[in-house]
């Protein structure tokens, strides 16, 4: 396994429509998934799409954290690792919910994005076996965010409001401080 570099906004790969995986019996796919999981956990992030590591293929990984607070918040969804190839949203709730999102490819920014409260995702596991995931709440949000990446769509395209992190005080004032620290644990970059 190895960490991969997460590419940033401005890199054209992030805006390309990613290609479907057709060959599952491929060590490169297994390596990609292993590396994506390792990179997501290392950053840390709650999800990662292959285009973010400069691979324009329809592959995502998702994992909500499983610390005590996350367990309270996410219940059984906490700590479950999803590795999905060719994911597709086949059902979505009519209910939409607001939520604050960030993206490893757009460090220092947050935005309010309306997402479906729940979605059903269909795809394949790393061995090419069909899988179906019913996701609700935050997990559903992460799946929608990651699957968007496969079509070159970023949360800033959908956000109704975007904030730039200038310093900790402003983040705290915006009520984002806890979210920022517990979920993303990134360094604040003054002036960025
Ligand atoms: Co993202």
CATH classification, class level: Alpha Beta
CATH level-3 fold name: Peptide Deformylase
Q: How many domains make up the coordinates?
A: 1
Number of helices: 6
Structural class of the secondary elements?
alpha+beta
Strand/helix succession: HEEHEEEEEHHEHH
Measured as a percent range, the helix fraction is 25-40%
Assign the CATH architecture: Alpha-Beta Complex
List of distinct ligands in this structure:
cobalt (II) ion
**First-to-last CA distance:** 32 Å
Main sheet strand line-up: 1-2-3-6-7
Rg computed from alpha carbons, rounded to a whole number of angstroms? 16 Å
Write down the overall mean pLDDT.
90
The total beta strand count reads 8
Low-confidence stretches: 177-192
Which word captures the global form?
globular
CATH superfamily: Peptide deformylase
Largest sheet: 5 strands, antiparallel
Task: Characterise the protein shown here.
With 192 residues, the protein is of the alpha+beta class. It has a single domain, classed as Peptide Deformylase (Alpha-Beta Complex), CATH 3.90.45.10. The protein is built from six helices and eight strands, in the order αββαβββββααβαα. The strands form two sheets. It has a five-stranded antiparallel sheet, sandwiched between helices. A hairpin with a 5-residue loop joins strand 6 (118-124) and strand 7 (130-136). Mean pLDDT is 90; it is low at 177-192. Cobalt (II) ion binds next to helix 3.
């Amino acid at each position: 396994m190895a960490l991969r570099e997460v590419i940033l906004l401005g890199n054209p790969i992030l805006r390309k429509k990613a290609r479907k995986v057709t060959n599952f019996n491929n060590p490169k796919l297994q390596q990609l998934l292993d590396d994506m999981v390792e990179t997501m956990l290392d950053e840390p992030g709650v999800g990662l799409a292959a285009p973010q590591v400069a691979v324009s293929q329809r592959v995502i990984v998702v994992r909500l954290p499983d610390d005590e607070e996350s367990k309270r918040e996410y219940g059984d969804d906490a700590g479950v690792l999803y590795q999905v190839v060719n994911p597709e949203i086949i059902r979505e709730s009519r209910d939409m919910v607001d939520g604050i999102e960030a993206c490893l490819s757009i460090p220092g920014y947050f935005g309010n994005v309306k997402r479906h409260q729940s979605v059903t995702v269909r795809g394949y596991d790393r061995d090419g076996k069909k899988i179906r995931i019913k996701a609700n709440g935050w997990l559903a949000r992460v799946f929608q965010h990651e699957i968007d990446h496969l079509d070159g769509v970023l949360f800033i395209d959908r956000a109704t409001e975007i904030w730039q992190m200038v310093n900790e005080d402003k983040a705290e004032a915006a009520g984002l401080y806890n979210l920022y620290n517990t979920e993303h644990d990134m360094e604040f970059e003054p002036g960025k």
